[in-house]
Structures are given as structure tokens and as C-alpha cells.
UniProtKB/TrEMBL annotation:
Chain ranges passing through the membrane: 12-36, 77-98, 110-135, 141-160, 181-203, 242-263
Source lineage: Bacteria, Bacillati, Bacillota, Bacilli, Bacillales
Name of the protein in question: Carbohydrate ABC transporter permease
Organism: Paenibacillus hexagrammi
CDD domains per the UniProt record, alphabetical: TM_PBP2
SUPFAM superfamilies assigned to the protein according to its UniProt record, in alphabetical order: MetI-like
Amino acid sequence: MHKLKYGSLTTLKYLTLIIGVFGALAPLVVVLFASFKDTMEYHNTSALTPPMHWLNFDNYVTAFTKGQMLTGFKNTLIIMVVAILGNIFIGTMIAYVLQRFRFRGRGAIMAAFLFAALIPGVTTQVITFQIVHWLGLFNSMGAAIVLYMGTDIIGIYVFIQFMDNISSQLDESAMIDGASYFTIFTKIIFPLLTPAIVTMTIIKGIGIYNDFYIPFLYMPDPSLRTISTSLFAFKGPFGSHWETICAAVMIIIAPTAILFVALQKYIYSGFTQGAVK
């Protein structure tokens, strides 16, 4: 009886995993197959039918050239680098102050960050747009950079959890040697936060790379298209050419997939170390 119950649970476990894997990979497989098909083959075969010619890269060439995806990659890279550098620097400084110092209002600041995270972003879009327009950043990369640069409660908590493992005796020793708080932060604390910084860089970078809403709303100029809005540009003259759109999707997915496979150990280690306490 015990063996029968154990065997049933094991079967159910693996069946659930297989269904989950199929649900996660099926859309990607459909897009991959469609990206190698021509228009006739795409309309005359099912979505899960493999392409007849795996070396048909015409859709990729069309997507990359006519979609101006090179400009999209360049603009996305500029926004990502500037926004992530600012986000990491601001986030680590806030975490340093909140973790190392005890002052009146510290709890209120933490509560304010948590409260802000609970407010649905869509409810603040009108006032956010007005502020961006008032700053003169509308229709420029500055709008996206400023909005992405704002730190978030998840990043602060991750940095604080890492700082809990850094002994305060390092700070005290440096202060005895005459180091200022800024020197302690930049020379001691910041380098020791490298695993957390790598984790947050990956998470923030993927979020910026995949975001469509902010570039579409705040940067309507075609020369400012990011990789996500470049994909949207296929809607219209390429609206019925789904095989070209699928090729563009695969071009967009490739960099993030490669980075995730190469850096996944930093992502997992960052989350697990940040969740220990």
C-alpha cells in the first residue's frame, strides 16, 4: 500500500513537471518554427510542424534590416548601462545608510518604500507623465533613464541582507585609520556587495530590456526606438507577416537567453543569500 501511494505521488510529481515544461517551452518552440518558414508554409502547416528548411534565414534578415533592430539594440544598451549604474549606486547608498545607521525616521523610510511598492504603477502614470514633461525629458532617452534609475524595495532589501553579513568592525577599523563614511562605502562596502550587485544588474537589465510601456509612451521618435518598440514597429506593413515577427522575437530573445545561461548561478545565489535572514 505504501509503495503504491509513493509510486502514485512520484508519477503525479513528474507528470506535473512535464506539463509545466511543455507549457513553458511550447510558445518558444512555436515561435522558433515559424521564424524559419516562408509565408506559404506558415499558413499551410500547423504551429507545431517543424519548418522544411532550417537554413531559411530570410525572415531574420528582413526583421533585422527593415525593423532597424540595430538602432533598437544601441538605444536599449545606452539606456540600460546608464540606468543600471545609477540604480545600483543609489540603491547601495540607501541600503548602506539604512543598515549601518540608527536614526529617527529610519522605520518610516522603510515603510514608505514598502508602501510605494504596493501602489499599482498604473495609478501614478498621469502625474509621472506630467513630471517627465515638466522636466523637459519627453521624447528623449532621459525620460526612460530617470524612470528606470529609481530604486525599488526589492533591491534595497537584497543589499541590506548582504550588508548584514559584512562585519561592522571593518567600518570601525577604517574610521580609526581616518576614513570618511564615503570612503568606507566606496572602498570597503561597495566592493563586498559584488554578488548582490551582479544579481540586481541582471534582474534590472532584463526588466529594462523587456519593457515596452515606458519607451513606447515617453520616446515616440522613431530614432529613439528600443528593442521592444522596434518589435512593435512590425505591426502595420508587416502586420500579417507573422513569420517575420517571430524571427524578430527570436533575435530579441537570444541575448537574454545567453546571458541567463551564463550568469544563472549569480541570480540564484543572490536570491538565496538574500533570503537567508
